[in-house]
UniProtKB/TrEMBL annotation:
Pfam families: EF-G_D2, GTP_EFTU, RF3_C. It is found in: Cytoplasm. The lineage of its organism: Bacteria, Bacillati, Actinomycetota, Actinomycetes, Kitasatosporales. The gene is prfC. One of its GO terms (molecular function) is GTPase activity. Residues 29-296 form the Tr-type G domain. Increases the formation of ribosomal termination complexes and stimulates activities of RF-1 and RF-2. It binds guanine nucleotides and has strong preference for UGA stop codons. It may interact directly with the ribosome. The stimulation of RF-1 and RF-2 is significantly reduced by GTP and GDP, but not by GMP. PROSITE patterns: G_TR_1, G_TR_2. This is Peptide chain release factor 3. CDD domains: RF3. It comes from the Bacteria. It comes from Streptomyces lonarensis. Its main location: cytoplasm. Belongs to the TRAFAC class translation factor GTPase superfamily. Classic translation factor GTPase family. PrfC subfamily. Keywords: Cytoplasm, GTP-binding, Nucleotide-binding, Protein biosynthesis.
Length: 548
């Protein structure tokens, strides 16, 4: 059987409404659900492993991501799907730490970067922004940060690779402040410049300086030792005084960590370390528990709120199709928002009012699927056989509730799609419409190109691979894609779109996004946006979420 584990427990078994409410509130309070946002190669896999290792969720490094195998593969999960024929995914890592349960959601990067990467951020309560000490803020970090800002997700910053030569700490703080309009409030501060890391100061407690001693070879985790201020000054000498000075300077100008500012997205607590040597990893883990907010009441589409101790509700933030034609199921990733999820319970899909049975519910972490029996606010559950569910769906029990729709994000890749066999045009149209509805890609139409040649828009090119594969194997209409030379989209009004299409001066094209009827103006680059604004100063050009 594909669903392992015991059958669903029979007969409700909540132990009464009151205790179920208490349980939900209690379990929510001790959960932290977060994601790491970073640019490829900043060290996300290394940090993920280090965090999990530190929390002792896994026994050996390398067990989480198996990074070695994945280089050069078009897509992680497609390769895995093809090799195993099942929907394996390490979408979530769950581990216990102190008295808490941490859910670390994966934000696929590298070749897997796609609209799903952004959608994950709709399911977390906090993000750890991982920065390479030598590179500072990079493209993908900017995009992911934009989404966090838009969604009000608070951000903790971890400056990684401090064991290697890099930029000056103050300069990095300045960059965060300037580019993200986010006030950095260092909680730890490095003693020793990048490449010569010796320890960290703790802004909260002068007697909590840490000394890190790396084992020869550098592979092993560094030993961590706590020093009081007097000892630290003696041990670190000038490096210590310099660090104290820098930290004072920052605290004087910007103030220290302020929970209210942090939760409102105005400031970010900053930590320094080196994931590879396990430097600063424990401190970061503690920060996630101590600073990141637990799951809280969630806004509803009607303006109301769903408290965590209300009846069960959850949000489908990602759908994954099985690529194996003989196992054509869909897995829905559901974040529990309120109440207790119990495998086997029947829930309602808010969009249709139809029931959905959760007999096959899985935890979706690690290398394998295992059945999940109970899940609480902040947890992620994988629902198999979920073909009738869609990204953005609300599932609930009891009275109808619905969360706001999942936004669509700024696409950066555009391609005309055509059936290779025009006799299959019916299958073609049906397939494209369904992939649009499922949120696999965004479908655009233009007056110029006509309905026969819809344009697909995606955040990452992997989304096109999925379209090709599913059109051929699922809808029996193989397709040909012709890439268009646009990389940037802005929202405009219909008049602005017409102006763009008629203009001989501005290189660009306007199209209508089928799903929400927004007119998108497509441009090859930012420079062309400028020329549009000069020629048509009265036409609006609004950035889309995560536009750059
Ligand atoms: P990613 O998931 O964000 O893409 O990054 P990943 O963890 O794969 O790290 C990218 C590279 O940076 C890896 O080296 C990794 O070992 C290195 N790295 C990560 N954290 C640190 C750190 O704290 N200090 C130093 N010095 N290096 C770090 P690689 O040689 O590209 O890959 P690998 O062969 O070691 O896997």
């Amino acid at each position: 059987g594909r669903a392992r584990g015991s059958e669903a427990p029979s007969g409700g078994g909540y132990g009464g409404v009151v205790s179920s409410r208490t349980t939900a509130a209690h379990e929510a309070a001790r959960r932290r659900t977060f994601a790491v946002i970073s640019h490829p190669d900043a060290g996300k896999s290394t940090l993920t492993e280090a965090l999990a290792l530190h929390a002792r969720a896994i026994t050996s490094a390398g067990a989480v991501h198996g990074k070695g195998d994945r280089r050069g593969v078009t897509s992680d999960w497609m390769a895995m799907e093809q090799a195993r024929g099942i929907s394996v995914t390490s979408a979530v890592l769950q581990f216990d730490y102190r008295d808490n349960v941490l859910n670390l959601l994966d934000t696929p990067g590298h070749a897997d970067f796609s609209e799903d990467t952004y959608r994950v951020l709709a399911a977390v309560d906090c993000a750890v922004m991982l920065i390479d000490a030598a590179k500072g803020l990079e493209e993908q970090t900017r995009k992911l940060f934009d989404v966090c800002r838009h969604r009000g997700v608070p951000v903790i910053t971890f400056v990684n690779k401090w064991d290697r030569p890099g930029r000056e700490a103050l300069e990095l703080m300045d960059e965060i402040e300037r580019e993200f309009r986010l006030r950095p409030t260092p909680v730890t501060w490095p003693i020793g410049i990048a490449g010569e890391m010796r320890g960290t100061l703790d802004a909260r407690d002068p007697d909590a300086a840490l000394r890190y001693t790396r084992a020869p070879g550098g592979e092993k985790a560094a030993a961590e030792e706590r020093l009081d201020a007097a000892t630290a000054r003696e041990v670190f000498g000038d490096d210590y005084d310099r660090a104290v000075e820098e930290l004072e300077l920052l605290t004087e100008t910007g103030g220290g960590h302020d929970p209210e500012d942090f939760l409102a997205g105005r400031s970010t607590p900053v930590f320094f370390g080196a994931a590879l040597s396990n430097i600063g990893v424990r401190v970061l883990l503690d920060a996630v528990v101590d600073l990141a907010p637990p799951p809280a009441a969630r806004r509803l589409a009607d303006g109301g709120e769903r408290p965590v101790d209300a009846e069960f509700s959850g949000l489908v933030f990602k759908m994954q199709a099985n690529m194996d034609p003989s196992h054509r199921d869909r897995i829905a990733f559901l974040r529990v928002c309120s109440g207790v999820f119990e495998r086997g319970m029947t829930v309602t899909r808010a969009a249709s009012g139809r029931p959905f049975a959760t007999k096959y519910a899985h935890s979706v972490f690690g290398q394998d699927r295992t059945s999940v029996e109970l899940a609480y606010p902040g947890d992620v559950v994988g629902l198999v056989n979920a073909a009738q569910l869609r990204v953005g769906d609300t599932l609930h029990t009891g009275k109808r509730v619905e969360f706001p729709p999942m936004p669509t994000f700024a696409p950066e890749h555009f391609a005309i799609v055509r059936p290779t066999d025009i006799a299959k045009s019916k299958q073609f149209r049906r397939g494209i419409a369904q992939l649009d509805e499922e949120g696999v890609v965004q479908v655009l139409v233009s007056d110029i190109r006509g309905e026969q040649a819809p344009v697909l828009a995606a955040v990452g090119p992997m989304q096109f691979d999925v379209v090709r594969h599913r059109m051929e194997h699922e809808f029996s209409s193989p397709v040909r894609l012709e890439m268009l030379p646009y990389h940037l989209a802005r929202a405009t009004d219909p008049a602005g779109g017409e102006a763009l299409n008629r203009s001989r001066l501005v290189h660009g094209e306007a199209m209508l996004r089928v799903k929400d009827k927004v007119t998108l103006a497509l441009f090859p680059s930012r420079w062309h946006v400028g020329s549009f604004e000069r020629e048509f100063p009265d036409s609006p050009l609004e950035p889309l979420i995560a536009a750059h």
